[in-house]
Structure formats: structure tokens, C-alpha cells
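Morning run. Coffee first, then this:
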Amino acid sequence: MSPPPPPAAESSHARGPDGPMRVGAIDIGSNSIRLLVADVPPGGAWTGAIDSVARAGEPCRLGRGVHESGHLAEDMAER
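And here it is:
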């Protein structure tokens, strides 16, 4: 038996009847973590630009020591 489909993510807060959909992306790199929240045009039409709603970033140094040990340091992963 296959699992049930996930609940629909759309709500009146995420998308107007003919308006954009608000989406978020998280980029976790070896030195920083970044977040972008943006509105995507209706129908998924790509116009080459996005309407950025919020951006945030933090240095994390997650990859410190990886080149020596081959894995993430436990304290950095916990952080």
C-alpha cells in the first residue's frame, strides 16, 4: 500500500486567486547559511526576475576541518 499524498501546501496566505506564490529557499554551505523568500509569478512563468520578500544570512563555518577529517565536526553540526 502506498502512503497517502501530503496535504496541499497552498492557502490564501500563500497565493491569491491569480497572484504569486510565496516560496522559500535555504542554502546551506560550508561557510554560511542563507535564506531567500520570494514571490513567484502565477503559472510558474519565469520572467528572469523574482520579487524578493526577505533575505537572511549567517556565517556558520560548518565545513571547518572537513578537509582534514573528512567529516563535519560534531560541535559544528550541533550548532
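Helices lie at 66-69, 74-78. Good start to the day.
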